[in-house]
Amino acid sequence: MTPRDDSPPASAKSGTSQPPKDVVVNIDEIPENGAGQSMTDGMAVSFVDEQDCGFFGPSSNIALMRHILRAVDTKRTHHCNQTSLTPASEYSAYEGGLVSNLNAFPAASSDSQKAGANLLPPDEVMQRLIRAYFDNTGLLFPYIHEQEFLDTYERFRASGFRGNVRRTWLGLLNMILAMATCTSCWEDSGSETTFEESDVYYRRAQELCHTQMFRGTTLETVQYLLLTSQYLQGTHKSVHTWTIHGLAVKAAMSIGLHSRDIASKFTPLQQEIRKRTWFGCILLDRSLSLTFGRPCAIPEEYIRLDLPKPLPVPISNSDEVHKMSTAFYNASMIMGRIIGSLYGSNLGCEDQSSDTATMTSMIQFGQELSDWQNSLPQHLGLRSVDNMPDNTDENIRDPLREKFRIILTLRYLNVQLLLHRPIFIRSLGTLLREAKTPYRHAGSINSMHANFDRVFVQVAENIIDIIYTILTRPDHGRHLIGAWWFTLYYAFSAALAIFGSLLISLGAEAGNAGRLESAKRYLGKTCEALLKLSDNNTLVLRCVKFVQQLLRIVSAWG
């Protein structure tokens, strides 16, 4: 191995050990016809441009925030004496908060954009990060075959990192390093420094694969695009993740990952990895459809393959890990069907269905979620704030299993929140039409509305309670909640639900003092939990500031 060393040769031995040096590797050149390659980031679009022309449909938090802010503005208009209320216009800067992290990190200078695509960190750093990836993201999204990847790495390492290596594999390696840095390393410190470090790996991978990502003719390229899209969800470039995800889906289809017929041409192991990569695309597709409020890129009728099977790998927890990832996938598919049925597939073209039809669908999906929950093995059962593990609980000694249980629980609760949102939105809409009179149906419909609204609030409170408990108890911590950006998304969605439900209830029933105090308590817990999530992440702090604004409004009402 020949590491790069820019320092002058020492004339005498030093008494202190030198830090390990970066590794310089040889990269295969890409033969190209025509003009040379531009190093410009072809995905770079400004957030302002995206806001001007972007579509954020019914399931997005942006759409929910707009409903709530219009209701706040209407209430302010009809209660002019409450001068402490904040005009809705002051919130406009926050409307994209959970979809694009505008200015979450300082813009890189032109010199820093030259990432040094042929550089890698020291071997011991790479091995630690690779292990962290496969112990974390690689378990929930197991579309990269661990042993095959490690074998390739060992051959590369045995050559002293001097042998030529495929650009796509090296790009995939850099994305694994990036993902591990911004997830596993963040769990230890919560520092924004980890994002700056991970961005170096991301830019190296981008420089390596900016041509291959548009060709999309190999499984490795699809995996690279898929992992890049996942990574971008949690960075200041998160708005780009939609574009990269589209490339991943098209690349997957171009090599037939969706096809059962073509699968027979591959070995059983290759078939499973191809299938896992396809299902990885589906999982991310449903997640992005939810957060961006945009139609799925992979329609339900395109999903014909059977679920992946456990791989014959020599690790004792293979079957348990498979059950975990399968449960996560099934919950995500129910979420996708809810978006299709209750949100018009996020197309923005649906006529509003009747209350009866909407509530019938909600009951049916509620049964699906109940069946999903009952199908979970006992050791993977969902958590609640009343049965969180403590220092004496054996599950704390098995943090991987406990982490999956928390991830499954938060995903389930967020799907429940999504399921109950349509009735909540209708109630908010009525506030806009009849601001001076409470929203009421006659008879059983009114009773069902009240029940759904009550569940909506309870689910939001459960989400906040669990996140708060994990992040504030010394025997728990960030390592139990998975990717930080999903935790932020869940907590922020729940806070919006708490505040919005208060808008509906004020003036409609007795006992509002109790509702006001409860809302204050949960909005306060949200702020405290998010500050425990990170007290120096710009996006987290922007969301905390927004929730604090909501808390001030509630205090003014009280």
UniProtKB/TrEMBL annotation:
Keyword DNA-binding: yes
Domain Xylanolytic transcriptional activator regulatory: 241-314
UniProt GO MF annotations: DNA-binding transcription factor activity, RNA polymerase II-specific; RNA polymerase II cis-regulatory region sequence-specific DNA binding; zinc ion binding
Keywords of the record: DNA-binding, Membrane, Nucleus, Transcription, Transcription regulation, Transmembrane, Transmembrane helix
GO biological process, one term: positive regulation of transcription from RNA polymerase II promoter by galactose
Chain positions covered by the region annotation Disordered: 1-23
The UniProt record lists the keyword Membrane: yes
Gene Ontology cellular-component annotations: nucleus
Coiled coil, from the record: none
Regions crossing the membrane: 483-506
Xref: PANTHER family: REGULATORY PROTEIN GAL4
Protein name: Xylanolytic transcriptional activator regulatory domain-containing protein
Organism listed in the record: Fusarium anthophilum
